[in-house]
Amino acid sequence: AVQDDEDWELSARTDGSVLKTVKARDLWRQIAEAAWACADPGMQFDTTINEWHTSPAEGKIRGSNPCSEYMFLDNTACNLASLNLVKFYDEETARFDTDAYMHAIRLWTLVLEISVTMAHFPSREIAQGSFDYRTIGLGYANLGSLLMRTGVPYDSDKGRAITGALTSILTGHSYATSAEIAAVKGPFPKFEPNRDAMLRVMRNHRRAAYNVDGSSYEDINHYVMGIDADLVPDEMLDAARSVWDRTVDLGEQHGFRNAQATVLAPTGTIGLLMDCDTTGVEPDFALVKFKKLAGGGYFKIANQSIAPALRYLGYQEDQIEEMVDYVVGTMTLLGAPHVNRASLSAKGFSTQAIGRIESTLPGVFELGHAFNVFVIGEDELQQMGFTEDQYTSWDFNLLEELGFTAEEIQEANDVICGRQTIEGAPYLANKDLPVFDTANKNGRYGTRFIHHTGHIKAMAAAQPFISGAISKTINMPNEVTVADIEESYMMSWELGLKAMALYRDGSKASQPLSSTSEEGAAEEDEQIEGLDEALEETAQIVTGSFSSELSPTMAYEGVARPRFLLPSRRGGFTQEARVGGHKIFLRTGEYEDGTLGEIFIDLAKEGATLRGVLGCFAIAVSKGLQYGVPLEEFVDTFTFQTFEPRGMVEGHPNIKMANSIVDYVFRALGLEYLGRNDLVQVPPTETRALPEPPKGTAAQTGHQMDIIEGSMEQDIEAQTRAAKFVDARTSPSEKPDHDTPHGGSVTFSETNIHQKKVSVSGGDVQTSSVQAALGGMMGDAPLCDTCGHIT
What we know:
Blueprint: E1 7-11, E2 18-23, H1 24-38, E3 43-44, H2 46-51, E4 79-84, E5 89-90, E6 95-96, H3 98-118, H4 124-133, E7 136-141, H5 143-149, H6 157-185, H7 195-209, H8 234-254, H9 268-273, E8 288-292, E9 298-302, H10 306-312, H11 317-328, H12 341-346, H13 351-360, H14 373-376, H15 378-383, H16 388-391, H17 398-401, H18 406-416, H19 452-462, E10 473-476, H20 482-494, E11 499-504, E12 513-514, H21 529-543, H22 552-555, E13 562-563, E14 574-579, E15 582-590, E16 596-603, H23 609-626, H24 631-638, E17 647-650, E18 657-658, H25 661-674, H26 698-701, E19 706-707, H27 716-725, E20 742-748, E21 756-762, H28 769-777
Parallel strand pairs: 4-7, 10-11
Antiparallel strand pairs: 1-2, 3-11, 5-6, 8-9, 8-12, 13-19, 14-15, 14-17, 15-16, 17-18, 20-21
Helix pairs in contact: 1-20, 3-6, 6-8, 6-19, 7-8, 10-11, 24-25
């Protein structure tokens, strides 16, 4: 449809009815533009997915887990395991141990099969589905490192052939083991209705292993990348082919114990535990990278495959040592140019301070990161003549203050911390450079990286031999265009991928891995100060936004901030529920038009610390609402906050799972006052709906407000008593008509400054069509046992 610029129908997930018709090419462009801007959405190809479906008798595959490697029927689960491919490679003989690899596959298939019975599931439906199909997900990690150690470029025909062969062995032998188990324990309960379809898929896997002509496949209408026999070692090729002959024979006799056997998962965390340089099917992100830790800080990761790869390519040990130092650095001050032990001692550093700097060097990105107050110590810096204001300043550069030039610092940095690229390394032949190509440019000097088409082709080599799909990122440099994104999506479909996700470097504010430092001499554009100030002032007046340099105190200087007071007697509602077994009462107070003005959160346990914290938190939110903070801001900020107690929700007709009490509260408020059906697991229906209050916020409805200075008129206990006393919701008939938006104006003055008028208007906050559509789709989908959301 995209290629021919045809129409594309958007259909309802529930009944398949056509909701809207759009131009396919326009929608394709919008998807590409969104991915260019923020790396979302990923793409899944429905037809390709279901052509490899082993159990179509129970319906089509409609989606996947968030990482997109597990694709199967709704209400099923899959336990994962991955093998470190490098562990089967003998560097001395330069041979991959196929027999050991197959033994590990056999063993772990059995372990995962047992885990299906031993596992606990979040719902009865998922438990039943998992028992009926017994899907498992065996995979591998460290493929990129294995190829590098064997001197094979990731983006090469040989690299793709080896990838296909290794994946063929993985899935073929896992299915063969599954058939052996079926001979003893019986096939999975839903095998017989799906026998023909599953055996057809097995035969298509075998055809890919033998790299037959495309017309020979059964019910496959896309390109399939088979194994190039000329580029794979004989032992590996024989195993990759013969295993499917055995699998098909065993499957015809006994069936299979598992409806799916393999996926290629991201292996991000277990990859570190298994000492992998690369995750899943990925190439290395960079030869030297820094992983951002969730708790703050960075963890330096250096590729361990550089030296083995150079050794395989025939370089001498002394040459290898120099080249490795060129990439990762010497990590010592000893013998470094300009910044070394002798020069630092001459500048006044003590032996102890130099020792602390030395111990920090293996983990720093830039040399300057080792020269700060946290490493050297305040006493040491003060003895050298630096003041606290100096060394605590964010832009303090100790090395420059000591008299080292930028050129001297950079030269020392290159030696001590490394250049983080192998390009330009002594002795390295140009023909060997592709072996060390990574997903991104390396360091500040690197220019080479794997083109995005190389990632797609690598996935295409593995996909024909995977039961599920592949969780992999197609990394792209920052400078790629929307057209490049479109090309990637189209190529992924043409090469038979089931799914793909891409990431343009820097398209998100934060990313877990970095290959370069943010430090550098950035040139600032010349600006016309008068024009900028005029434009900024105009923008502030029109949009109500202020520059990041302006604090609220400065913005409101001389101005009495408006606060919208609630009437002394007000309506609201009380919702009793249990979150993770803890009883909670959510109480609200409303303005006369039904808009939210305050909340109270009570726990059943008297005197609990959490009860007090939640009470104070509720007052803070109430104050924010009364000073005009939109309820939408609170809802967007506090939903999905995760901490204990959390879990199943009892007592609320629509919210069935919450990440925390705070998450539950703002899901409830979002549903009640904003119509946010997307935040609940069971959307309200006409026959099962909460009483519908008027929607909006105080600022939007233009209520009379008073200028109040000082603290809250009543203390916390008094407010709590008052809330309990007036805890009665007015009937819908007493509510004003909200079909007509309210409007009004508020005037406040600045001391000795001209009068300003702020128009405030509001009305019903209508649920967007997107939210309504999404909300209607969620009723039959499973809940995530971690976040409580539809997966």
